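Most newcomers find our protein records easier to grasp once they have seen one. To make this concrete, we reproduce a full record directly below:

===
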Amino acid sequence: MDVRSYRDLKVWQVGVELVGQVYALTRLFPKAEVFGLTSQIQRAAVSVPSNIAEGHARGSRKEFLHFLTISLGSLAELETQLMIGNKIGYLDAVLLDNVLRQCDELGRMLRSLQRSLESKV
């Protein structure tokens, strides 16, 4: 497959799907959390595919690698915040496990893309 745009990247597509899942989950959080944990979780989720897109658009392998690292950091932040949501009773364990599996898959994809780009440097 010819990658002409970040939208062609499977890792970006999976990241966008994860954002949809996260928004659906955070709708279950108490309304009082809208400006707290809910907002933090949503921002972290959105940051993952956004940084993939920005890094790809920069046009340099070195910058793309940098932005992939930021995406991985945002993914770790998201996982942590979701676990906190579970710990304080906003998110049940089954829903948490499902979304964490998606996060794991996306993390593997990001690391694989990083290794691929690093091997071409």
Remarks:
- The chain has one domain: 6-119.
